[in-house]
Specification:
This protein has 196 residues and is an alpha+beta fold. It folds into 2 domains: 1-28; 53-193, Immunoglobulins (Immunoglobulin-like), CATH 2.60.40.10. It is built from 2 helices and 9 strands. Strands 3, 4, 5, 7 and 8 form a 5-stranded antiparallel β-sheet that branches. It has a 4-stranded mixed β-sheet with strand order 6-2-1-9. A hairpin with a 4-residue loop joins strand 7 (158-167) and strand 8.
Length: 196
């Protein structure tokens, strides 16, 4: 009986192993469905454009006619013409414009604080450009003799740093800008050059 029982147990064990192998094979043969990946959102195309583009189209320096001699020969006046371009499809309104001027790293007298002007309701249409004339307080020969001497020779590279405050239909925005000016017109009396 023991001899007959042993083969029966072995047979049952073989059947059990066969069933287990069949189950394992069937589960391996048909792979489980892969999890559906979550689609990543497609990034929107970068359509954001600069809100404003500011450049200097003209810089002239002259002795002011409003200052009587001999003081007139110790001061010069800077006059900027800024070109302000709206590159977007939305109209903007220039409300305020301010800037400071540096000449070869020297702060121009009176411009260590921002020079500012108000422009209520100065609209700039989509893709349009407007010009803004802007004076700077006087440059003093006594306060900056080294800068004055180089300015009179036409050697100064000017850096203009400022902020344009604009309004769009949705919000008010402050747009910082920086311009470099190498070419400028100089119209000063020879007496302004004495002592240089």
């Amino acid at each position: 009986m023991k001899r007959k029982g042993v083969p029966a147990k072995i047979a049952m064990l073989i059947v059990a192993i066969a069933v287990i192998l069949a189950l394992v094979t069937s589960s391996c043969g048909t792979p489980a469905p892969a999890p559906t990946p979550t689609p990543k959102p497609t990034p929107a195309p970068d359509t954001k454009q600069p809100v404003l583009e500011v450049s200097v189209s003209r810089l002239s320096i002259h002795c002011p006619t409003s200052v009587p001699p001999p003081m007139a020969y110790s001061y010069a006046r800077m006059m900027f013409e800024f070109k302000i371009h709206n590159p977007s499809a939305v109209a903007v309104t220039l409300e305020k414009f301010e800037y400071a001027v540096y000449g070869d790293g020297h702060t121009v007298a009176g411009a260590e604080r921002m020079v500012s002007g108000e422009y209520p309701d100065r609209a700039i249409a989509p893709y349009d450009t407007t010009n803004v004339d802007f004076p700077l307080p006087y440059i003093s020969k006594e306060e900056g003799p080294a800068l004055w001497a180089e300015m009179a020779k036409g050697n100064v590279i000017w850096t203009i740093k400022g902020v344009a405050h604009i309004r769009t239909p949705a919000e008010s925005i402050s747009v910082p800008f920086e311009c470099i000016v190498r070419d400028y017109s100089l119209s000063i009396d020879d007496r302004c050059l004495e002592g240089n």
